[in-house]
Amino acid sequence: MCGICGELRFDGSTASDEELAGIRDRLVHRGPDAAGLYRSRDGRAALAFRRLRIIDLTPAAGQPMANEDGSVQLVFNGEIYNFRELRERLASSGHTFRSRSDTETIVHLYEERGADGVEDLDGMFALAIWDERRQRLTLARDRAGKKPLFYYRSNRLLAFASEMKAFFAHPGVDMEIDAEAVPSYFIHGYVSGPSTFYRNVRQLEPGSVMTVEADGRVACRKYWQIAYPPASEVRPVPYGEAVAAVREQTTRAVERRLVSDVPLGAFLSGGIDSTIVVGLMSRLMPERVKTFSIGFEGDPAYDETAYARMAAERFNTEHTEFRVTPDALGLIDTLIWHHDGPFGDSSALPMYQVSKLARAQVTVVLTGDGGDEVFAGYRRFRAALESERVPRLAARAAGAVLARIPAPGHERHWLADTQRFFSAAAASFDERMTMWNAIFFDNLTDLLRPEFSRTIPPVDPLRYLAAGRSQTAGRSLLSRLLHANFTSYLADDLLVKIDRCTMASSLEARSPFLDRRLVEYVAALPDRFKLDGRRAKAVLRDAFADLLPPAIDRRRKMGFGVPLGRWFRGELRGYVHDLLLAPAARYRSMLSGAYVERLVAAHLAGEANLGPQLWSLICFERWLQLVTEWRGHRPAHVT
Predict the structure, then answer these.
(1) Active-site position among 2, 5, 501, 619
(2) pTM
């Protein structure tokens, strides 16, 4: 796991080594162990690298890594899980290896197949290859988007980096805020890819390869997309066969992710997914598994540590846990820095802290992330399907009645779930699945200043679904839900959070449930194998019935959340008041100050639970205050 960056200049100019090192070293947290730099013969192309040693700890595995004659140069972030099979194939074709690393496999694979070689890679990766003979830069990213890769393009150059903070150190990159990204952030809690918060900066999309010629010509193509079969073409599979296959493929996915030359452990939440991963690790590893969990003191609705301890005892792990308190909000500036902007998912706070806790003992962790996305584990999936059976008139009536009932103490109360369900039950299917995961939706117009709204194109809250409509036509409702979730929420929220929060502490995270073979196999299974009535993840639960403690199998899904409502009404009441109600608050140039003041008043009075909304506003305001400092040195507030 590492940090990569570089550039290709089209105007004949070159950057100094000092400039390139300054850009590279903004990513030092991703690779504290070593650094490297390559410049092409004419100086127009440059690759830079920060290394976190995981496999082959010797200098021979350092980067940039070249082929035998130096004409192919590679920088790479991630892990290739099938590198041993590829290495054997390439060695039989005459390629010579000088290291034990997975990195060198990519170099020789490129010599064999060019940019098409990425299709053979099974793993998590973002990479850049400079081909000196062809004068061509190739960028590629893994299928799910586990590893990030951003690029900036102008008439003068194309620059790329693992994180956008590197661009703030680049004298040739103008990091101007893109006002059109603001509504997306307040709908989803993130800017939907491939867009970002900055003009001319975009993400390379998951499962994509981009080639950039020396004259500035760019070509980009998708080499992989998740595919669900049309409802009429779902292949009938005996349930027992599916159970056996899911067990075998999940076990294999975990086993492939245990290759490491440094200490390895796991995040353990006490949910089904992480419990299965840890259970398999305990059977596959010769030593006891080191596990890590996090909870919230005095908030049972948000604290899963009792279940995590149950799983830890079941599998005899070396278990460590940590409790988060309201003073952890002091990390908000650090989180904004590591996310390169505001991030509306407050669970980044405990994720950052458990990552720091784990890094004191291990360098790699396995996680249960991806299980809900692949096996339909979210309660909102079931709600979306059930709402199809509710008559629209009845839904509107029930919603009107429930809206008059005072909000419960927190958003995880059953009444809060019921109010959310009926508030959206009368909307279209696409609107419902968006509203149930949105921060602002119907009230977005109230939030944005009219003067600001007139300066940007009309806001379409369903725009993020447009690119996938051709892939979901004729698919079941559940397949449409899963596709939207995999390509948006997973890629733009969960995987971003996991990568930034772990890499902030130089910790590598691996997600077995996002194994390509497993993802593709489960996507093709009948819906009822995933969501069987009210039983989510049916085939996964049955595949590992012997591993799951009954109490964990039976428990209601909790999720990784933060008790923001109580914090903002209690210990952090003054912080919320001072930051969001300040007359000179910077958000007021884009958002309605009067509406924000009403939101704050309603939450503090207990009239509504608006913790997620206030969190998104706090992050936005602090970003606007901090971003002007990022052009200089690494901010002093970063821990």
Answers:
(1) 2
(2) 0.93
